[in-house]
Design brief:
With 431 residues, this protein is an all-alpha fold. The chain has a single domain, classed as MFS general substrate transporter like domains (Growth Hormone, Chain: A, Up-down Bundle). The chain has helices at 2-12, 14-21, 27-43, 45-58, 61-81, 85-88, 91-119, 127-154, 158-165, 167-171, 173-185, 191-198, 206-211, 214-238, 240-249, 254-282, 284-310, 325-343, 346-352, 359-375, 378-389, 397-413; strands spanning 313-314, 319-320. The chain has a two-stranded antiparallel sheet. Strand 1 and strand 2 form a beta hairpin. The protein is globular, with a radius of gyration of 21 Å. The relative contact order is 0.16.
C-alpha cells in the first residue's frame, strides 16, 4: 500500500504539479508534459521487473522487495524537496523525470515479489482469496494518497497548497517507509522458495530460463494480451482516468472530485476480495474475461452519466456549477465492480501461470508491460485524444478497444489455473 501511495501521489497531484515543474505559458501543454512524466514511471516498470525479478528468483523474495521499498520511499521524498521550474529552470523537469524512472523501477520489482510471496504462503484452494488482499493495495494506496492530499489541503488556503503545501504528502512518505521497512525485516522468506533453495532447485539464470525458451514466451505473451492488458485499462479508466475526467474535463472542483473518487474507492475495495474469492470457486478465467467484456460495454455510458451529473460549466470560473456529488460517487463506485472482476483474481492467475524457480521474474514482466504501457499511458493518450478531437469521450476509445481485444484473445488462449498445485509441476496458462 505504501509503495502504491508513493507511486500514485504524483498522479493525484498532476494538476497541481504541472505549473510547478513546467513553463506556465501553455497550461494544457504543461499538463500533458506532467502526464508524460507520470507515464515515464510506468515505462520503467518492466525494466524494474527484470532487475528485481532476477534478484528475487536468485536471492529471495524478501530481500528484493526490501530494496524496492527503500528506492521508492527515497525517490518520493526527493520530489517533496525538488525546486521548481521558477528556481532551477529546465533542470526541474529533467530531475523529476529521473525520479519518476526510479519510482517505476522500484514498483516494477515490488508487485511481483508481493504477489508471489503471498501466493506461496496461501493454501492452494484459497489462493485467489488471499492474493486479492494484495490487489486491494493499489486502490488503497490511491485512496490514501487522495485522503492525505485532502487533509493537507484543508489545513491551508488553496494558494498556499499550490505554492508549497503539495510537498507535505511527498515528505510524509519517509515516515510510512520507516514503518514498512521495520515490518519487512521481521518477515520470513517464502516457505516454497526456502524449500527450493535448500534442495538446490532455484534457477541459476532466471532471465535466461524465463525468456530463453519459446514455451515460456508463449505463456508470457498469452498472459499479457489475454489477461493483463485488459485488466490494466479497466483499472485505470475505472479509477485514475475517472479522477482526471472529473477534474480536467468536467471541471469539478479539485477537492470535491478527489473526495468523490476517494469515497468510491473505499466502498469499492470489497469487490477485489469478493471476486478473488469467487475465482477460487468458479475459475480465474471466467471472472476476469467477464470483467473485461462488461467493463468495455459499461465505460462509455457511465462516463456520459458522469458528464450529466457534473452539470454545466461556468466558463469564466472554469468550474462545474452544480455537480451531483452523491450520483457522481455512485457512478465511479459502479466502475469499481469491473475493476474488481479483472484485478481481484489476476495475482493468483499470474503466479499459477509460471513455475516457482522463475516465478518472480516471469510474473513481473507481463504484468508491468500491461500496466506500464497500456494502463500507465492511458491518461496521457486519453487526454491527448480529447484535446485533439474536442470530443470529451474520445479518450474512452483506447480502453474499450484494448479490453474487448483482451476478452477475445483470452477466450481462445487462456486455460484455467485455479486448480494448480504449487507442490506439483505447474501447467502453462495457454490453451
Amino acid at each position: 500500500m505504501i509503495e502504491w501511495y508513493d507511486f500514485y501521489l504524483f498522479g493525484s497531484l498532476s494538476a497541481v504539479l504541472a505549473p510547478q515543474f513546467f513553463p506556465k505559458t501553455n497550461p494544457t501543454a504543461a499538463f500533458l508534459y506532467t502526464l508524460g512524466t507520470f507515464g515515464a514511471g510506468f515505462a520503467a516498470r518492466p525494466f524494474g521487473a527484470l532487475v528485481f525479478g532476477r534478484i528475487g528468483d536468485l536471492v529471495g523474495r524478501k530481500y528484493a522487495f526490501l530494496v524496492t521499498l527503500l528506492l521508492m520511499g527515497g525517490a518520493t521524498t526527493l520530489i517533496g524537496l525538488l525546486p521548481g521550474y521558477a528556481t532551477i529552470g529546465i533542470l526541474a523537469p529533467i530531475i523529476l523525470l529521473l525520479i519518476r524512472l526510479i519510482q517505476g523501477l522500484a514498483l516494477g520489482g515490488e508487485y511481483g515479489g508481493a504477489a508471489v510471496y503471498v501466493a506461496e504462503h496461501s493454501p492452494d484452494n484459497q489462493r485467489g482469496f488471499f492474493t486479492s488482499f494484495i490487489q486491494t493495495t493499489a486502490t488503497l494506496g490511491l485512496f490514501v494518497s487522495l485522503a492525505v492530499i485532502l487533509a493537507v489541503r484543508s489545513m491551508m488556503s488553496p494558494e498556499a497548497f499550490a505554492d508549497w503545501g503539495w510537498r507535505i504528502p511527498f515528505l510524509l512518505s519517509i515516515v510510512l517507509v520507516g514503518i514498512s521497512v521495520y515490518i519487512r525485516t521481521k518477515m520470513s522468506e517464502s516457505p516454497l522458495f526456502t524449500k527450493l533453495k535448500a534442495e538446490g532447485k532455484t534457477s541459476k539464470a532466471p532471465l535466461r530460463d524465463s525468456f530463453g525458451n519459446r514455451r515460456n514466451w508463449g505463456v508470457i505473451l498469452t498472459v499479457l494480451f489475454g489477461a493483463a492488458a485488459g485488466q490494466a485499462v479497466i483499472w485505470y479508466v475505472g479509477q485514475f482516468y475517472a479522477l482526471f475526467f472529473l477534474q480536467n474535463v468536467l471541471k469539478v472542483e479539485f477537492s470535491t472530485a478527489s473526495t468523490i473518487v476517494a469515497v468510491a474507492l473505499l466502498f469499492g475495495l470489497p469487490f477485489f476480495v469478493f471476486f478473488g474469492w469467487l475465482s477460487d470457486r468458479i475459475g480465474r478465467k471466467k471472472v476476469m474475461l467477464a470483467g473485461n467484456l462488461l467493463g468495455a460495454l459499461a465505460v462509455y455510458p457511465t462516463y456520459q452519466a458522469l458528464a450529466s451529473a457534473a452539470g454545466p460549466i461556468d466558463e469564466a470560473a472554469q468550474l462545474a456549477t452544480s455537480p451531483n456529488v452523491v450520483l457522481l460517487t455512485f457512478l465511479v463506485w459502479t466502475l469499481l465492480i469491473w475493476v474488481g472482476m479483472v484485478y481481484g483474481p489476476i495475482a493468483a492467475f499470474l503466479v499459477e501461470a509460471f513455475p516457482a524457480k522463475i516465478r518472480y521474474t516471469s510474473v513481473s514482466l507481463p504484468y508491468h508491460v500491461a500496466n506500464g504501457y497500456f494502463g500507465g499511458f492511458l491518461p496521457l493518450i486519453a487526454t491527448a485524444l480529447v484535446a485533439r478531437t474536442g470530443n470529451i469521450y474520445a479518450g474512452l476509445v483506447f480502453p474499450i478497444v484494448v479490453a474487448l481485444a483482451t476478452f477475445v484473445i483470452g477466450i481462445f488462449t487462456l486455460r484455467e489455473t485455479k486448480d494448480v498445485k504449487f507442490h506439483e509441476e505447474e501447467v502453462p496458462a495457454v490453451a
